[in-house]
Amino acid sequence: MTDSAPPSQARTPWRAVFGGSIGNLVEWYDWFVYASFATYFAGAFFPKGNDTAQLLNTAGIFAVGFFMRPVGGWLLGRFADRRGRKAALTLTVTLMSASALLIAIAPTYDQVGYFGAAVLLVARLLQGLSVGGEYAASATYLTEASRPGGRGFVSSFQYVSMTMGQLIGLGLQIVLQHTMSDDALHSYGWRIPFIVGAVGAAVVFWLRRNLLETEVYTEEDAHQDERGTIAELLRHRKEAALVIALTMGGTVAYYTYTTYLTKYLSNTAGLSKSDASLVSFCALFLFMLLQPLAGSLSDRIGRRPLLITFGFGSMLGTVPIMTALSHTNTFTGALLLSLAALVIVTGYTSINAVVKAELFPTHVRALGVALPYALANALFGGTAEYVALWFKKGGAESGYYWYVSACAAVSLIVYLTMRETRDAALSRDRADDPAAPGKQRTTAV
């Protein structure tokens, strides 16, 4: 950064970090609260029976939401490239508010039969559509609003906000568990977090309307007709395939140790629901604090070293960690093992957003991040919980541990062979060298 840089470029873009992250927080609060409260509302939408079978049904609807994410990635990624990052961020949080409200008022199986499950399904489809665009819009916005040499640090706040959203959901769950009876939670208490999410999203809608567009996007004059098109994305099909491959292992591991962890601790390890929730809360809080540290480290040593560390750690550590967790019946033991797993996952989560954004030019960056990432999440992240419960129901739960390890092994091959993206220029013509540090542009909001 030179001395002649304008004031807007001379400061850390905390306004952009806050604006991009606060909406992301609410988006992922609503997304994850479905998973964390599933143990309470599973029986409300399906016939009485085996607890695992009911969880399997709700996990199936959870997975369906992921399969809507590629549609959201395509539509909203294109929208973000053609209409701007700010417009896309505002639209995604609007859709999320509507979906949370639908779940909050959905009728139960005893009231209307399977129609209540149908309403739940529609809400999850809307959430999938919203989150499919939110990830890319947020990743692109935070990356483009960062100064050179600080993109890893700034973009790491995407997972800070994602984790904070989940922590708020888990924190609310813990409060409700200690202030409401178990019967009340199963009866109507589970609706409270969705009402909170709908209101929170409405507040964020107002906040995001006051965001400024990134300079990288507004200064992009070329390729107007090609912005956000599938045809243009196909010109970068190698990068799109790379996004899918590098996401595979990370998304499976992430959803294993976040959304599925609470159920695993209560349904397999035998911890009480309240203890399992508290373990997840504490582990995720420490995990959240690690993200900016790891993101900043990547600005110094590069992205690949962190990804490679995650790949080896997840490939070799998943089976022993998950096996030990299954035999843990103490709070401390479960917390230490969960934290060990999340420290490994940090190598992926802290920088995966910036790595993907650094692979694409401005006019197709949001779509390039959104669509392949959403496809990878639909195939691997969204199905992680369902696959885990399927293995458990089949009496071979340890098979899932090997599945997670195998996914990490595939991604590790990609990490070992991909190019470093830390010095990639964000604003460049198609003919420019993507890795040319001389093309770097300073951007701030």
Shape: globular
Low-confidence segments: 1-12, 429-445
Report Rg. Answer: 21 Å
Please report which band the strand proportion falls in: under 5%, 5-15%, 15-25%, 25-35%, 35-45% or over 45%: under 5%
> Structural class of the secondary structure composition?
mainly alpha
Provide a descriptive summary of the structure in words:
By secondary structure, this protein is an all-alpha fold. Helix content is 75%, strand content 0%. The chain has helices spanning 14-36, 38-45, 51-67, 69-83, 85-105, 109-112, 115-144, 151-155, 157-179, 182-187, 192-208, 215-218, 230-234, 237-257, 261-267, 273-301, 304-326, 331-349, 352-357, 365-393, 398-417. It is a multi-pass membrane protein. Belongs to the major facilitator superfamily. Metabolite:H+ Symporter (MHS) family (TC 2.A.1.6) family. It is found in: Cell membrane. Its main location: membrane.
Task: Give a quick rundown of the structure.
The protein is mainly α.
Kindly list the characteristics that best describe this protein.
445 residues; single chain; 21 helices; mainly alpha
What's the layout of helices and strands?
Elements: H1 14-36, H2 38-45, H3 51-67, H4 69-83, H5 85-105, H6 109-112, H7 115-144, H8 151-155, H9 157-179, H10 182-187, H11 192-208, H12 215-218, H13 230-234, H14 237-257, H15 261-267, H16 273-301, H17 304-326, H18 331-349, H19 352-357, H20 365-393, H21 398-417
